[in-house]
């Protein structure tokens, strides 16, 4: 059985963008409307001869903070149950939010490997945005730009290291 890697995080942080880059095709639909993912979900990914199943959590994502938080809790639960490795994606442009903090506490309790991914670091000037996220207590953040495909190779290396 292949290891399962779940992508979790707030709406609009870029989960589906990353999923699609790893999946190599547009399986999960990213729309122009922020945060909208129509179909989730599973893709088989190969990296350096290692194979894993990637899950894009999200679905149709809600607007209200309360509903976002409860849905993130559900995502976190799903990830806790199914995943061997959890990719927790945060938005390096928007910065840290209360929801990020709350979810990171849940994820830490899983005792599973959690990789903190700071997305939307599109260029060197934005690199300083990653430092706030050390506060989440999930180790060294991986700075990536899903949109520009920057940092994805290093992230895949880290994922397969954890199998
Ligand atoms: P999800 O809701 O977490 O699945 O996020 P999406 O993948 O749907 O992306 C939400 C929005 O963020 C879309 O408009 C994407 O084009 C944009 N986005 C995703 N990755 C990046 C990135 O690396 N840089 C920037 N600037 N925008 C991104
Ligand atoms: Mg999505």
Automatic annotation (TrEMBL):
Top-rank lineage group of the source organism: Bacteria
Subunit architecture: Associates with the 50S ribosomal subunit.
Protein name: GTPase Der
Family label: Belongs to the TRAFAC class TrmE-Era-EngA-EngB-Septin-like GTPase superfamily. EngA (Der) GTPase family.
GO molecular function annotation: GTP binding; ribosome binding
Key words, A-Z: GTP-binding, Nucleotide-binding, Repeat, Ribosome biogenesis
Role: GTPase that plays an essential role in the late steps of ribosome biogenesis.
